[in-house]
Amino acid sequence: MGFNVLAWSAVMSEKLNPITERLKNIGYDGIECFIDNQDVAAYHRFGDHLTQLGLQRTCVMVVGPDQNPVSESAKIREQAVSFLKEAIDRAHAMGATVICGPMHSAFATFSRREPQPDEYARSAEVLHAAGEHAKQANIILAPEALNRFECYLCNTMSQLLDLIRQADHPNVRAMFDTHHANMEEKRFPDAIRTIAPVLAHVHISENDRGTPGDGHIPWDDTFRTLAELNYNGWMTIEAFTRNDIDFANSINVWREYNDPWNIAENGLKFIQEMQAKYAR
User: Where is the signal peptide (predicted)?
Assistant: First the structure.
């Protein structure tokens, strides 16, 4: 079980050290952090701190228009591969085993048409190249389907599965996020079963991005289906606040949902209760 420290900051720094210490004391197995453009040495230092705490780690990332894997421009696609490789190097320096996020296409960048077959093909080619680099670092890339207001290439597990199959690389798998699925999927069990063959990471996220269990996500369907599939990967809470104003503004978070420690403490209890309920 993990917790995404984006609830406090999108910037990795020593300011996160006491937060990660408290997350360890609460009972988390690992933390997830956003990959920014800091020097690799900073990731080494943060990774050493987490190792001393006994915390495992995963990362999340996005790509922008200048690194868009679906771009018609060969130069931009080359920049996408380089950008992903640099992210992999930073994650490796930190000791992370998974990088998740909407790395298949530029965040909140729209073509004003439905996704095209050649866009999937270009994205798959970029992901395959990045997968080769990730293999050397023993890192799994787990692209994420987002809701229609943040992405157009992959909104559903069906679309994401097709993309992962086209990428055709063992280090390129997939993530399921309950927040986005709440908007885009008909039924959670069907969506989870669709992505199950390549599922490598799960984000536990409430419909309002607050404390898991406080909203209307179909949690029983979620945990029951994951248990039936014997899923044993990460379940990482991703919740947002306005603690990091720049990051909050960039993803349209305009109000507080819950205090981050409320999310961390009660969210962990909720996951543990649901896991116990559907233990096999």
Answer: none
